[in-house]
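Internal tracking record. Fields below are filled automatically when a chain is submitted to the structure queue. Please do not edit lines marked as system-generated. If the sequence contains nonstandard residues, flag them in the REMARKS field before resubmitting.
Queue: standard
Priority: normal
Entity type: single polypeptide chain
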Amino acid sequence: MAVETSRFRELFGSFPTSVAIVTALDDQQEPRGFTCNALTAVSAEPPLLSVCVDKRSQTLPALIHSGAFVVHILAEGAQEASEVFAGKSEHKFAGRRWKPSETAKGAPVLTDIALAYAECTVVQPVEAGDHWIYIARVDGVEVFPRRPLLYHQRSYSIWSPDGQLTAAG
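SYSTEM-GENERATED OUTPUT FOLLOWS
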C-alpha cells in the first residue's frame, strides 16, 4: 500500500534542498517558468541533468515546444522569485530582467537571482506518475560567487561557507 500524498510531501519536506527556477519559451516566444526542487545530476560524461515537471505545469507546453530550458539554482535574495514562480500567475516575468539564452533556444536567463545556471537541451522525456522527468544535456553553465538559497519544511534559509544557516527574508 502506497503512503498518502500528505505523508509523502512531509517526507520530502524534511529534506533540505536547493531551490531552482526552470525557464523556457513557449510557441509564441513568451517566457514561462516554474520553481523546482526536483533537480539532480545524471551524468558527467556527457553532462546530463534531470528536472521533474508536474503534468499540470503551465510551463510544460513550453518545454515540449522548445525542447530546451535553463535551470537557475537560486541565490540569497531570490525567495520572492521562488514564491512567484511557484504560483500560477501568467505574469511571472513582469518587471523581471532576463536575457535570452544563446544555447537553449532563447530560454530566459535570470542572472540577477542565480547562484548558477545551466542551459539545457532535452535528450529524453520520461513519464513518471503525475510528472515528466526531463533528462537534458547541459550545453552552457555560469556560476556566480553568491550564497545559496535553501528550502526546508516550508521555509527558506541561506547557507554560508562556514556551515552556518541563517533565515532568509
